[in-house]
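Quick one:
INPUT:
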């Protein structure tokens, strides 16, 4: 764990460079050195040097004033997907569930305040819904976020909520922290959760935690489906046993 590493062994420059990469997002596609400095806490001179280094090593481009990331930066995330143990272990099981259900099945993990999707098996439909590996979503609007948080202690959950930004994406998005806590507690009691129209109108999410042999939550297995023609109850009845069976089968090997 990072907390056990002696700071004298750290390369601070690497951490700062990663912060510069992370400063780009949907709302900040192109940044000047001054904007990057503001978002990272670096000086303008330092931010400019890191941005120029990213250009030199092929991870960014520039027009002389602003900088933006280029596709090569995806190699950083792909390295995790290629080398991590969890995506490889779950893939055969989610493929089985996808074949049985006819739906797209995902496995995801919690990274801070976002859910990151790390494995996917597509439905046999021409058009399937769901999130591709490496996709990141705010944890409060997708079902896996709720079920993973449901495995946390109340103290850890309260600390997480105090720092989370409850943005609204649809008229149905839960943005009240008290209501969100109520849902997390309900998911804890049920062992699964269903959300509807939280991020996208017309879509329903169903998920259950993935736990290892020690009972620790390591992720979530779930699916995203249209809200029609099945009702919420029909979705649970038809698909939840498949997800739970897969989670139970995976537990001894996680």
């Amino acid at each position: 764990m990072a907390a056990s590493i002696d700071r004298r062994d750290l390369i601070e420059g690497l951490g700062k460079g990663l912060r510069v990469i992370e400063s780009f997002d949907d709302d900040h596609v192109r940044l000047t050195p001054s904007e990057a400095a503001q978002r990272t806490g670096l000086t303008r001179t330092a931010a400019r040097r890191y941005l120029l280094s990213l250009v030199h090593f092929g991870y960014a481009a520039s027009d002389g004033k602003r900088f933006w990331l280029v596709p090569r930066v995806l190699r950083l995330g792909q390295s995790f997907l290629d080398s991590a143990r969890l995506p490889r272990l779950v893939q055969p099981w989610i493929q089985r569930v996808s074949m049985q259900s006819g739906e797209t099945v995902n496995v995801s993990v919690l990274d801070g305040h976002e859910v990151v999707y790390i494995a996917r098996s597509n439905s046999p439909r021409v058009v399937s819904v769901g999130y591709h590996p490496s996709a990141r979503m705010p944890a409060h609007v997708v079902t896996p976020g709720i079920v993973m948080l449901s495995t946390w202690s109340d103290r850890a959950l309260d600390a997480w909520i105090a720092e989370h930004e409850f943005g609204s994406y649809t008229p149905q998005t839960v943005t009240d922290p008290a209501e969100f806590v109520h849902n997390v507690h309900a998911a804890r009691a049920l062992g699964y959760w269903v959300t509807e129209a939280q991020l996208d109108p017309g879509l329903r999410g169903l998920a259950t935690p993935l736990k290892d042999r020690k009972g620790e939550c390591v992720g979530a297995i779930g699916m995203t489906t249209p809200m029609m023609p099945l009702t919420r109850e029909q979705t649970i009845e038809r698909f939840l046993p498949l997800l739970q069976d897969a989670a139970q089968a995976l537990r001894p090997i996680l």
